[in-house]
Specification:
Blueprint: H1 10-21, E1 26-30, E2 36-41, E3 44-46, H2 49-58, E4 72-82, E5 93-97, E6 105-110, E7 113-125, H3 128-138, E8 145-153, E9 158-174, E10 184-197, E11 202-205, E12 210-214, E13 227-233, E14 252-258, E15 265-266, E16 271-272
Parallel strand pairs: 3-4
Antiparallel strand pairs: 1-2, 4-7, 5-6, 6-11, 7-10, 8-9, 9-10, 12-13, 13-14, 15-16
Length: about 270
């Protein structure tokens, strides 16, 4: 099993969805009269906190144009854990009719596996008021969770609401050295996103007819049929795209036949012999 390539972008989609929550946070600058003189969008980037702190320490010039812009928001994945409380029946399959020109195929995969991905989001600012403006635009939405709607599986067309839970908030004032050292006030918020990982998706043809031969006396080598039950959809050419529609109750044509010819059905030739 392990070694067959597949990639469903499940974790990547969660990372993108998590970042989109904080992608439009604004910061206001006020004049001496208390009026808003300027607003700016707080930059967001994926990367570890240590990376930005190293940039500040190695290049502490306050007025240099290439210095790191503060305030800013960054985040990164801090871990993945299996969530047994959301475990589903692993023997059940999820199925979806193919769209487009190949309408006679069914895509299927086993039930997804529940995982929790932990995120660490940090807010870095050079003064306390800027940091508090950002924090107060985030915290009211997490009580303690915020829901993001994501397409978990593109092939199976599954859309799910992913809860993002705020676990803790930490404060740090990284201000050491003389007056020429850049100050960095850091709020670290720890989150957990509860999502699902999907395995490989396979395609197979649609079963449009079923035939069952029944016997009263089963011989090991050559059982003789006595009754045959067959079923086909009604209408026979119903499209899989209509199966999930409100009027998709198309029904079945069912037939029962009785025999006394002692013949058996050969699945290779498709004939009674």
């Amino acid at each position: 099993m392990i070694g067959n390539y597949f990639y469903n972008n499940s974790t990547r989609n969660v990372v993108v969805g998590f970042g989109s929550i904080f992608n439009d946070i604004q910061l206001a600058k006020k004049d001496n009269a208390g009026n808003i003189a300027q607003t700016m969008k707080v930059p967001l980037a994926y990367g570890p906190k240590a990376k930005w702190l190293a940039r500040l320490r190695e290049d502490p010039a306050l007025n240099k144009k290439v210095a790191v812009t503060l305030p800013r928001i960054g985040f990164e994945i801090s871990g993945l854990t299996y969530d047994a409380t959301r475990k589903l029946n692993k023997s059940i399959k999820v199925k979806k009719a193919s769209n487009g020109t190949n309408d006679e195929q069914i895509k299927s995969g086993f039930m997804p596996v529940p995982y929790n991905v932990d995120f660490e989001l940090f807010i870095m600012s050079k003064n306390s008021d800027d940091a508090l403006q950002i924090v107060e635009q985030i915290l009211p939405y997490f009580q303690p969770e915020y829901t993001v709607t994501l397409k978990e599986s593109v092939e199976l067309d599954i859309i799910r609401d992913i809860p993002v839970v705020l676990n803790s908030i930490n404060y740090e004032d990284d201000y050491e050295g003389d007056f020429g050292t850049r100050r960095a006030i850091i709020y670290t918020l720890n989150f957990t996103a509860k999502y699902y990982l999907y395995g490989p998706v396979t395609s197979s043809g649609i079963i449009r007819s079923v035939q069952v031969d029944q016997y009263t006396d089963v011989e090991v080598n050559a059982p003789k049929r006595e009754q045959r039950y067959s079923a086909t959809p009604k209408p026979a050419d119903v499209s899989p795209s209509n199966w999930d529609a409100d009027d998709g109750d198309f029904g079945f044509n069912e037939t029962s036949s009785f025999f006394e010819d002692a013949k058996t059905y050969n699945p290779t030739t498709g004939q009674d012999e």
